[in-house]
Amino acid sequence: MNVATRFGMCTAIAIAAACSTAGYAAAAPTTIPFQVTPTPYGNPNGSVDFPPTRCVAIVGAEAGSAQITGGKEDGWGCPTMGAPWTVLWLNLSTGAAGSAVLVNDSYERAPETTIDTGAGQVAVFVHTNDGIHTPGLATFYVP
């Protein structure tokens, strides 16, 4: 990534974190929805053949980690269309950062990944490598 791209990504995460109203995790696992929106041919509204991808972050099931998956039954709803998606995360409380890969390597199970962020306010940036999707962004508290 070039410097401008990194700066833009960090700025977007910081703005989203400041404006976020996502809930804090309670005793039971909390689900935070977000979407990765397709922009085929530069159309930010998507199209009939490219609906938005509805992903979720599940926090509170395991201390210090979050699971990124689909919001539908059995974790479906966040299809990667066979190509790996990159999950970048930043713990705004501790400064820790990392990345993971969200991939559907088999159509028999839904794509999912677990990120070990540690406790704190976390920003997650999910993007594809195909260039036709607007990245998904979510902020949430990991207990």
Q: What would your notes on this structure say?
A:
The chain has 143 residues and is mostly beta strands. It has one domain. The chain is built from one helix and nine strands, in the order H-E-E-E-E-E-E-E-E-E. It has a five-stranded antiparallel β-sheet with strand order 6-3-2-1-8, with no helix packed on it. A four-stranded antiparallel β-sheet has the order 5-4-7-9, covered by helices on one side. Strand 4 and strand 5 form a beta hairpin. The longest helix has 17 residues.
Q: What is the element layout, followed by pairings?
A:
Blueprint: H1 3-19, E1 30-38, E2 53-59, E3 65-70, E4 85-91, E5 97-102, E6 113-116, E7 120-127, E8 133-134, E9 136-142
Antiparallel strand pairs: 1-2, 1-8, 2-3, 3-6, 4-5, 4-7, 7-9
Keywords, please?
mainly beta, four-stranded antiparallel sheet, 39% strand
Query: Which strand order do you get reading across the main beta sheet?
Result: 6-3-2-1-8
Q: Poorly predicted ranges (pLDDT <50, ≥5 residues)? A: 21-26
Shape annotation: globular
The helix fraction, in percent, is 10-25%
The main pleated sheet reads as: 5 strands, antiparallel
Count up the domains.
Answer: 1
Order of helices and strands: HEEEEEEEEE
Which secondary-structure class do the elements indicate? mainly beta
Instruction: Specify Rg, calculated over alpha carbons.
Output: 15 Å
Estimated share of beta-strand residues? 35-45%
Distance between the termini: 31 Å
How would you state the average pLDDT, rounded?
A: 78
Annotation field: number of helices: 1
Number of strands: 9
